[in-house]
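[INFO] parsing input record for NADPH-flavin oxidoreductase
[DEBUG] input buffer:
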Amino acid sequence: MDKISIGSKPLLYPLPAVLVGSNVNGKPNYMTVAWSSIVNMAPPMVSVSIGHSRHTLKGIEENNTFSVNIPSTKQIAETDYCGIVTGAGDDKSALFESFYGKLKTAPMIKDCPMNMECKVNRTIDLGSHVLVIGEIIDILVDLDCTHNGIPDITKIDPMIFSFPQNDYFQVGKHIGKAFAAGKSIKK
Ligand SMILES: Cc1cc2nc3c(=O)[nH]c(=O)nc-3n(C[C@H](O)[C@H](O)[C@H](O)COP(=O)(O)O)c2cc1C
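[DEBUG] output buffer:
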């Protein structure tokens, strides 16, 4: 198969579309983030990469806390809205019912099937974006999105973002078991 070079770009597949929340001047604000990942096992940590101009970053710096909320595909309009409108100009707090957990200052979205409350561990200024690494203090999941006490991806029904096409997708079909499929070629 021939390949073409498309140059140096920030591309990776698949990317989840999540809603990152923080309190800015005491008021919840949420922004859409595609650049997030789990980055440590013990203690559990998640990273979100946030542009310098984002209103949400102000709240993260103010409180040293933030939330990562996983919307379901049903929340496509709200999720996209939080990615095209800034809290610096428009109040996004009334868009969702917010609640607080152990940290008290990391607003979470009740309607999202899964919420993570995080305490900032460190931030790294990478240039255009600040990599915020947070320790996951707690995860809350809607009971009906769990199976045997653990989150079920098919029930959560998260959104996948594709850049640079700028399209949203849904999780596809199950294709095999991890830490097991490779055994077929293991000597
Ligand atoms: C699908 C999608 C993914 C996005 N991912 C990111 C991201 O990873 N990091 C970022 O800084 N901005 C990202 N944005 C842009 C911000 O969400 C957008 O600038 C938003 O208005 C910021 O809100 P705020 O100023 O209220 O914090 C994304 C937007 C969309 C629609």
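[INFO] The chain has a mean pLDDT of 97.
[INFO] shutting down worker
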